[in-house]
TrEMBL record, chains A, B:
<dbReference type="InterPro" id="IPR001789">
    <property type="entry name" value="Sig_transdc_resp-reg_receiver"/>
</dbReference>
<dbReference type="Pfam" id="PF00072">
    <property type="entry name" value="Response_reg"/>
</dbReference>
<keyword id="KW-0597">Phosphoprotein</keyword>
<feature type="domain" description="Response regulatory">
    <location>
        <begin position="5"/>
        <end position="121"/>
    </location>
</feature>
<dbReference type="InterPro" id="IPR011006">
    <property type="entry name" value="CheY-like_superfamily"/>
</dbReference>
<dbReference type="Pfam" id="PF00196">
    <property type="entry name" value="GerE"/>
</dbReference>
<keyword id="KW-0238">DNA-binding</keyword>
<dbReference type="InterPro" id="IPR058245">
    <property type="entry name" value="NreC/VraR/RcsB-like_REC"/>
</dbReference>
<feature type="modified residue" description="4-aspartylphosphate">
    <location>
        <position position="56"/>
    </location>
</feature>
<feature type="domain" description="HTH luxR-type">
    <location>
        <begin position="153"/>
        <end position="218"/>
    </location>
</feature>
<dbReference type="InterPro" id="IPR000792">
    <property type="entry name" value="Tscrpt_reg_LuxR_C"/>
</dbReference>
<dbReference type="InterPro" id="IPR016032">
    <property type="entry name" value="Sig_transdc_resp-reg_C-effctor"/>
</dbReference>
<dbReference type="InterPro" id="IPR039420">
    <property type="entry name" value="WalR-like"/>
</dbReference>
<protein>
    <submittedName>
        <fullName>Response regulator transcription factor</fullName>
    </submittedName>
</protein>
Length: 220, 220
DNA sequence: AGTATTTTACGTATTTATACTTAATTTATT
DNA sequence: AATAAATTAAGTATAAATACGTAAAATACT
């Protein structure tokens, strides 16, 4: 069996070196190229036709997500893997949407990283355990992901503050105001105020509709 | 911080011992109970109220999946984790549907296992990397999982009458009791009685949870 | 025809949510 | 330092939901 050829794209040389060192011990994996930004990653992939391109999500010129989406037209046989520090739902879903074969968190340990690369090379997607949560919840709440709904002003129309989102989340979990108040060490009146404000913002007039709308508009 | 209390359910003593040995080194995790089949797992959970119940998928009397589904009524605070040898799509999706917080493959290594338990204890779902593929594909190919064919007697546990379902549907639509009463030409008291009965049947104690459970259990 | 289930609805009491307003603190932003 | 935004929380009033128990009709099932 031939080695798995990798191209690493990350704007920090240090990070690239770290990953390279990590992979060096594994002798069926080989880093054949590196890139410092999205464009370069695509060009390198086009030239070297690696099996896998590891893309940092945050890079100059072009993000890893954009690069992942374009990868197949530069090197059809290469598979993109997104590397990220965050387990943000948006990112994970966008990665999926961009056709990425994996989404790895930066705190993934060596063993898992290698396991993931091998699995992906075998054609199976791999999402870090820390991220599977996002997929699971998305599936449970059964909205198939419709690629990015242009977070223009819609985001503002229903703009909720951090605290409001937190409380909304607890309401969605079926918690009573009293429970929420206790768990946040706040007065029940405060929670009531927040709920009132949330309902006003969402233009609804009862808790169930509030939850409905929150889920529908994905405000959590 | 207190330890994470675990109950292990697997029909093979050897497997239980293996897992126990694996977890022993971790000093914020403690195995407080064991069970050899699904029924026993539920009874043990009811008594010991562990944080997490690790359930082998294949067990005598009751499978891990069934036990996971019933766990919340035996020990509401406990989270179920399914342990399986297979990454079968059906199993994974059924685990999700049963409300499990995780799905771990039996070849999961020690580090990952512990990471998973901690993460799950923190309230975040964890699905083995080898399994995330299933979730990802399911999401991409966008058929939201419609809970398995005929859930045998589960149907009976939460059996709602036609009227109750009708009213539940209206509640889910965010209607107030007054509106429901008007649209059905019934008294508000009647609607209240129905709601009370529905909530008793679903073992919940507020409207949002009623809706949550109804959606989750697909009772409409 | 007789029994079981479902649907309807009242009583009574308690709790919780809704509907606003106002306003004192914190925390961010410029 | 000044302004804006967010968080907290009170007042006051009304409306609605929750928690049972009880029970008369209407339907369904054997």
């Amino acid at each position: 069996m031939s080695k798995i050829n990798i191209v690493l794209a990350d704007d920090h040389v240090l990070v690239r070196n770290g990953i390279k060192a990590m992979l060096e011990s594994e002798n069926d994996i080989r880093v054949i190229g590196e890139a410092g930004d999205g464009n370069e990653a695509l060009e390198t992939a086009k030239t070297l036709k690696p099996d896998i391109v590891v893309l940092d999500i945050r890079m100059p010129n072009m993000t890893g997500l954009e690069a992942a989406a374009k990868l197949k037209s530069y090197s059809p046989g290469s598979k993109a893997v997104i590397l990220s520090m965050h387990d943000s739902e948006e990112y994970v879903l966008q990665a999926l949407d961009a056709g990425a074969y994996g989404y790895l968190l930066k705190d993934t340990d060596k063993n898992e990283f290698i396991k993931a690369l091998k699995q992906i090379h075998g054609g199976t997607k791999y999402f870090s355990g820390g991220v599977s949560n996002v997929l699971a919840n998305r599936l449970l709440h059964t909205k198939p992901y419709t690629s990015a709904p242009a977070p223009t002003q819609k985001d503002d129309q229903y703009h909720l503050t951090k605290r409001e989102k937190e409380i909304l989340g607890l309401v969605i979990d079926g918690k009573h105001n009293k429970e929420i108040a206790d768990s946040l060490s706040k007065s029940v009146r405060t929670i009531e105020t927040h709920r009132f404000n949330i309902m006003k913002k969402l233009e609804v007039n009862n808790a169930v509709d509030m939850v409905n709308k929150a889920v529908k508009e994905n405000l959590l």
